[in-house]
Specification:
The protein has 332 residues and is of the alpha+beta class. The chain has twelve helices and 13 strands. The longest helix is centred in the C-terminal third of the chain and has 18 residues. Its cofactor is Mg(2+); Mn(2+).
Length: 332
């Protein structure tokens, strides 16, 4: 059996883990990245596309395969093309539509009894520092901060003038919570019926993280383009609340977006100075921060006592499902 994925994001980790679990591996990549991926001997098959329609055809062309999605899938191919993927997908493909809509994402968190930042439907209601977010997995590109209504209106007008957005329904205006970012990486196994914490990271963002190094004030506008990730180990007393939120989220998605979360997901959070966890976003698939832990995180060792990155954990779940004739439980 082949495990396949799109060449980007966390594809190396996914395919390396699949090979460790004795699967055949295939990558679907554009021509510009083909030579890069051919450096790695754990990839068995390379399918090169010239356009995104061809990428979908390649995905569907591999017999006896399971496709593993990651954070670049919707951003690259778009929902229309992704809906044309016919091979089994690891995880819940019904979540893709929810992930591509910021407002629907926040509603799932709120229904899960998870603390979230306040969102503003109207510019006129804004009375504090806010961050404006764009739809989809753009790695933070286009996000901006606004201290008041005037800055907010100017920033939104810029997005409209540059045709980055077509209308206000495409953005979310969210309270900017002051605290330490912590992105909790989880894995829900419907086979073992448990939530596992697989790691925690912080995104390393340009240019906001560079600006922090300047010893004087400046007028440079901060941007939030993700360029890398930094590992984090949380104070242990924080973890029970993080697990509570993860459990709640799993149950909510079972009811609202059946069959619910399958495999990796992330609760992207800020921890305040009174150690409250405020979740400002979720990812329903593997996140790039898991690439930090190719040999396993401090948390994954607590479950498996062996090197277990999330890519390998996906493949392990598939192996367990195959052994128990439950492949339909972990794929859609």
């Amino acid at each position: 059996m082949f495990i396949t994925t799109l060449g980007s994001h966390s594809s190396l980790q996914i395919l390396h883990g699949a090979k460790e679990e004795k699967f055949n591996t295939a990558i679907i990549t554009d021509a510009k990245r083909e030579s890069f991926y051919k450096r790695f001997t754990f990839i068995d098959k390379y399918l090169v596309y010239d356009n995104f329609d061809e990428a979908v055809n390649h995905i569907n062309s591999i017999n006896n395969s399971i496709f593993v999605p990651h954070g670049s899938l919707i951003e690259y191919l778009g929902m229309d093309r992704v809906s044309k993927i016919k091979v089994p997908i690891f995880g819940n493909r019904n979540l893709f539509e929810w992930e591509s809509n910021q407002k629907k994402k926040m509603s799932l968190l709120e229904k899960s009894n998870i603390k979230i930042p306040e969102s503003f439907e109207s510019i006129e209601d804004v009375d504090r520092l806010v961050i404006v977010k764009l739809p989809g997995a753009k790695g933070g590109k286009g996000y901006f901060l606004a201290r008041n209504k005037s800055e907010l209106k100017n920033g939104i007008n810029t997005l409209l003038e540059k045709n980055i957005i077509k209308n206000l329904d495409e953005i979310i205006i969210q309270e900017y919570v002051i605290g330490i970012p912590m992105y909790f990486q989880f894995f829900y196994s419907p086979i073992l019926k448990r939530v596992e914490l697989t790691g925690i990271d912080i995104r390393y963002e340009s240019n906001i993280d560079g600006l922090k190094r300047l010893p004087w004030g400046n007028e440079t506008e901060p941007t939030f383009v993700v360029a890398g990730n930094i590992p984090v180990v949380a104070r242990e007393s924080i973890l029970p609340k993080a697990y509570e939120y993860a459990d709640n989220f799993v149950e909510t998605t079972k009811n609202i977006v059946p069959p619910g979360i399958i495999g990796p997901f992330s609760l992207e959070s800020v921890v305040t100075d009174n150690l409250d966890i405020i979740v400002f976003e979720f990812s329903g698939r593997i996140v790039a921060g898991t690439n930090l832990y190719i040999n396993g995180s401090p948390y994954s060792w607590l479950y498996w006592n062996e090197p277990m990155c999330v890519g390998k954990r996906i493949a392990r779940e598939l192996n367990i499902a195959i052994q128990q004739s439950k492949l339909d439980v972990v794929t859609t």
